[in-house]
Amino acid sequence: MSFVATLICNPATPILDAAMIEAAGAALPDPQIRVLAEGVATDLAFDPGDLDDPNVAPLGEDILIHDYRNALIAALGEAPVDVVVQPLAHRRKKLLLADMDSTMIAQECIDELADYVGLKPEVAAITERAMRGELPFEPALRERVALLKGLALGTIDEIVEKRLDLTPGGRELIATMRANGAWCALVSGGFTVFTSAIAGKLGFDEHRANRLVIADETLAGTVEEPIVGREAKYAALIELRERHGLAIEETLAVGDGANDLAMLGEAGLGVAYHAKPSVAEAAGARIDHADLTALLYIQGYARADFAEI
């Protein structure tokens, strides 16, 4: 079986030079090098040998990937370069499920809402613990929403326009995948009042999130049940995969929080994006330095293949 290691840095600081690529290549058996974006992303395809070989088979695919990734990271030293190792087959995906808060946007929407009632530090602390997996997601969400009771609905439009920043590379990611026949879904533990706007700005095919209860143009302090959390994200991936007749290997998921773990684990490739430590450790791939275009490079797209936006 053939594998590919993709080296990616932040395109704002294109530091991936020939010396780094050569050092990484020395950690792999006879790699075939393909530059995807000068100074930013490079593929190194390699064959670790027959997985039926008695010296190789006991390790298994996941352990081989882990070992090669570690060897590449060691070869690169302290360089801020992301390394993703995966089977070469099926790397181009046909379904993307993406988290929103701290993934497709830089902020946590509920924390921004809380700022309008003077409770951002308290709410942000609960958010952080929930995203780290230290608190169950559903009760933590209900607790935070209750603190927002009475907040004017018009506040949401102001937050969308003035406080939410799209993560760099997001538009290119969605436009390129859709141009190549993929279905892209924004699946968030946040709220539809935000996902509808962000999905529109980024070009997603659909969005799913929690619905805030509204009373007299203000937030009622409650959220409609059932809550879109860890299990709902997991179920959405399976539903969309089956609806589109796709194999597991054709699916990609990205997120940063503990409520994304089941979704990331079920996807053909689950990517922890600038994620909480426990999430980054558990995911099949992690992006700590690059922007969202990394998700295109790890699918084998070159910069010249990106859709115009």
Automatic annotation (TrEMBL):
The keyword Lipoprotein does not apply. Gene3D superfamilies: HAD superfamily/HAD-like. Transmembrane segments: none annotated. SUPFAM superfamilies: HAD-like. It holds the Pfam family HAD. It catalyses: O-phospho-D-serine + H2O = D-serine + phosphate; O-phospho-L-serine + H2O = L-serine + phosphate. The keyword Amino-acid biosynthesis applies. It is an enzyme of class 3 (hydrolase). InterPro entries: HAD-like_SerB, HAD-like_sf, HAD_sf, PSP. Its cofactor is Mg(2+). One of its GO terms (biological process) is L-serine biosynthetic process. The active site is at residues 99, 101. NCBIfam families: HAD-SF-IB, serB. This is Phosphoserine phosphatase.
